[in-house]
Design goal:
binds adenosine-5'-diphosphate, 14 helices, cytoplasm, eight-stranded mixed beta sheet, binds ligand VHF, glutamate 5-kinase activity, Glutamate 5-kinase, nucleotide-binding, five-stranded mixed beta sheet, transferase, single chain, alpha/beta, about 375 residues
Length: about 375
Amino acid sequence: MKRNDFSHVKRVVVKIGSSLLTKGGKGLDQTAIAGWVAQMAGLRKQDIDVILVSSGSVAEGMCRLGLKTRPKTLHELQASAAVGQMGLVRVVDDNFQQHGLHAAQVLLTHDDLSDRRRYLNARSTLLTLLDFGAVPVINENDTVATEEIRFGDNDTLAALVANLVEAELLIILTDQQGLFTGDPTVYPDATLVSEIRANDPTLDRMAGASRSGLGRGGMYTKVRAARLASRSGTATVIAPGAAEQVISRVMEGKNIGTYFVPDLEPLVARKRWLAGQLQIKGQLVLDPGAVKVLKTNGKSLLAAGVKSVSGRFERGELVSCIDEEGNEIARGLINYGKAEAELIAGKNSADFERILGYADDAEMIHRDNMVLI
Ligand SMILES: Nc1ncnc2c1ncn2[C@@H]1O[C@H](COP(=O)(O)OP(=O)(O)O)[C@@H](O)[C@H]1O
Ligand SMILES: N[C@@H](CCC(=O)OP(=O)(O)O)C(=O)O
């Protein structure tokens, strides 16, 4: 994808860093936030799905609590985040409301995206919010995250969210013009990189740490995020958050910030991931009707077309779909664990509530989570 193809983008993740949001730690920048929200609302009006990953809870909490330096201990960080998150969501929500849009707070930990079942839950909730036309506002769940289940920085979180919802574009707003050949606060003669392949090995030499004491990762985590995002075919632009109409200009394909070109298109990347990297935990035998629908119409797999179930799997794990002769037709992430799948195999989704005691996904495997073999 070239910059001038961004006009085709239908789903974008915007990440805004702490120092931008809090005027370098002085408190939430109401004017700037109103400006970014207005631009995101403009995208929603064009029917583009928008997800905001917003940092700033610790920085705003520090400000409210009168802490001069970023706390060192985990519980102080967590307390600070809890205080600051209140201010953050209030301002963001007020602003989206002024544009007639609903903001939806989603706080995630690393476990939510690494555990297969929780991954599917997080994905379904985010996609449902987008279907409702709401704007998910995501941050790390700092108050409960221990070291082991932390993302640690919101650049990584934003990239994983972009992977999760298959956004075509990730925009990371920061306090610099973009990625420079070296940290411009240390090397004044460093120059702005306008475009680079996300997997270019020279990137590691350019990107340094954060120096503001407010954010977490500096350029290093942003470059790593661009690489991570490129795994699902997502393009990344690191752009100057303080620049006039920055989000709109990036979306218009203007030459602003640094554009990280992914190696693959989103669909190809996801199919490769599904087809190659996960272990198959079970098998579904499909009736001829289901085989035909999957092959010819690219539809989701409904339980009604499943004749039998084998293997050991939980919700969210990879299963293989075979025809009655044993030929593999497709693979996908299943919405039900083995016990439930056996109960609903061959049944209509209208009967799920009676059989299972609850009604959940109508599909056994959603077409977005399936790849034909
Ligand atoms: N190659 C580079 N180009 C630009 N900035 C860099 C580079 N290396 C390190 N940095 C530093 O990264 C900082 C931005 O990261 P950070 O403070 O974590 O911001 P944010 O809060 O937006 O995530 C810049 O202010 C700059 O000091
Ligand atoms: N969850 C933390 C995120 C910290 C963080 O990654 O900050 P930044 O490097 O400014 O994006 C917070 O809201 O303060």
